[in-house]
Structure formats: structure tokens, C-alpha cells
Amino acid sequence: MSKETKTFHWRVGTDYFDGDDAPNPIRRLLGEDLINTNDYGAINVEPEIDGFDIFVSEVKPELWNYFEEERNAQGEFDYED
Length: 81
Known about the structure:
With 81 residues, the chain is α+β, with helices and mostly antiparallel strands. The protein has one domain (6-77). Helix content is 16%, strand content 35%.
């Protein structure tokens, strides 16, 4: 990882989903927003009792505004180990 990328995190509550989403809630959660896998490293979705914690790592600068403004996500710079 480099300091030129960020990892973003946000939480989505279970009330975000309705009955139609039950078969594939993650698809709705991410939608078509993250189709270009060249713009980020990985997506981790951690289910919690009251929702999902979403982590998108190694996000390139082109998407930082999207995550901050559209997803209201918190971002932290990635640093090399």
C-alpha cells in the first residue's frame, strides 16, 4: 500500500434494506459505484447485528471525493509497512 491511496469505512444499518433486497443486499449496498476494480484494492463487508461495516482499501485519489461526499465515509491514508 502507498500513502497515495486511502482506506474508507462506513456503516450501513439493516433498515437500509427492504424485503426485495434480502437475496443480495451487498449488491444494492455497493451498487454500480465500485465497478472499476482498478480504482481500489479490495472491498470487505463485515456483517454486524445492526448492519454492515464496509471497508474499501487502496482507493485512488479520483474516488476520494465520492466516498467522502456521497458515502459520508471516513478515510485514512494507506502506508507502506
